[in-house]
Amino acid sequence: MVHPPVGIRSLAVSFPRVIRRNDYYIEKYPELVTQAEQKSLAKMFSLVGDIPSNEFELEMMPYLSDPFRGTVERRVLSPGESSLTLEYRAAKDALDAAKLSTDDVDILLVASFLPEQIGFGNAAFLARELGLQCGAWNLDATCASTPVSLQTACALVQAGGYRNALVVISCTYSRFFDEDDTLSWFFSDGAGAFVVSSLKPNQGILGTKTINTSILCDQFFFKLMEDEQGKQRLRMHVTKGINKAISETAASLLHTCCEGAISAAGITLEEIDFFIFNTASAWFASFCTRVLGIDPERTINVYPLYANIGPALTVGNLYHAAQLGKIHENDLVLIYAFGAASSASASVIRWGDVVLGPVPVNETDSTVKNSETGSIIPC
What global pTM score does this model have? Predict the structure, then answer.
């Protein structure tokens, strides 16, 4: 069956105003930094044995002497900011870039990790802020939410029931960690949005492969706790065996999804012009290029700018790759992401004439790190 060409028409990102660098923690929590090897972040990312036992641990090795595990900057919500404010800004910028009004949006898909309130997703709340009249659906695939949402939106538009789908992704990890928890050094906040519409012939989504990640179901969990003011707050926790679980499954998930998407698209790995990975650690892009045997120049790593922003990482990497001119119209792009207790997913798309939203606040003089050489590429 031949599907009409459907894919990303515009793309935008949004980040909090506060940029928190390593010096902040060194000055405020010197004892924590000194004792980092006994704290939660170090326990999350350390060798299972005495020597690397797989590609993931091999790429992690150079970062083990760094108490921040390669993290450089984080974006953190400031007073008055929330997942909804980030989502609203990204959504508006994506619509403006596509030259669409709210009346042109036929469906809103929102993946918030996590929503602002317990029990309800952000979709209807964001629709209210945007003034949308269309349906508003919540979608959750944890850190794989971007490719899963892209697949869903493309399928809806290809089926003919919708013309323009607005997809919004956010992650606000800072709400779920105390600042003096070393795990908070690794996580960050951000959002992205894109419009999915009809494109030129042969452009858009060409093939996908998604599998579940039930093997990682028990590695992350949330607890409802009371803070010092007696307010109930969700706090995120990780198990002691998380590093072993991720390092032993990451390569298999990557191979299965990427090879499946490439096969579904009817192409070969060598034909892919550029790769987008959810770079949830400083070394994940290098890990992926090693496992797939591809040139590191064919991908990008925004981790030095944003740390781990969960599902929003994929949108951030896409945005900066396009902004830097690494992706051009009609290039073949492979997008891969995986999330614990959800899915691993890959999509092959032929890039269209994608219009970008404005460069985010505080981003004008920022930099993106080349995953192979460690050099800095100006944005």
Answer: 0.93
